[in-house]
Amino acid sequence: MIEKDTYNTIETTPKPVLFKDKNSKFFGYAFPALNESDIKLHLERLKKEHHAARHWCYAYQLGTETITYRVNDDGEPNNSAGMPIYGQIQSFNITNILIVVVRYFGGVKLGVGGLIHAYKTAAQMILEASTIVRKTINIDYLISFEYKNMNTVMRIIKEKHLNIINQKLEMDCQITISVRKSEAEAVFKTFNYLFEIKITEL
């Protein structure tokens, strides 16, 4: 069972895979993506790289708690490409990912059933070739305090194994920590109870 505050994604782009059917070639690509600009860049690059291809069909899913997704058949018959690709994203239970299947037409029509099978297989192959990692959904907090309270703050950070993502240690200190969602409330209370130490959610 996946805990409520974790999700699966990929951190690196695997080597593309190739699926062939009746002279048509289907190249499968997977990219980690955090927003729509990432997706646009990957698609533009692939279209340049495969400028002689016939179709660049894709599906993506972004987000952890609020999900955004999109499918694109790019000229193939309705729901014969984008949805089968998206189906694999769902069956692998993965997010923050873009999968593109680039098709070179081989002169023989595959029919809708053949297309669904080809796009689904290419998407499945690239996901099987990907390194899938589980990450936690985190909340970031800013802790503000005077230098004299440094030891107290650092002791709690060490005891609770908190992840520091940014720090400015001068007379007025600020530390940004990233806390797993399921532990966030307890961490917030710990700092909130302390005199002269302020914690705010970012």
From TrEMBL:
This is YigZ family protein. Residues 22-126 form the Impact N-terminal domain. Belongs to the IMPACT family. Pfam families: Impact_N (PF01205). It comes from the Bacteria. It comes from Flaviramulus aquimarinus. PANTHER family: IMPACT FAMILY MEMBER YIGZ (PTHR16301:SF20), IMPACT-RELATED (PTHR16301). Gene3D superfamilies: Impact, N-terminal domain. The lineage of its organism: Bacteria, Pseudomonadati, Bacteroidota, Flavobacteriia, Flavobacteriales. InterPro entries: Impact, Impact_N, Impact_N_sf, Ribosomal_Su5_D2-typ_SF.
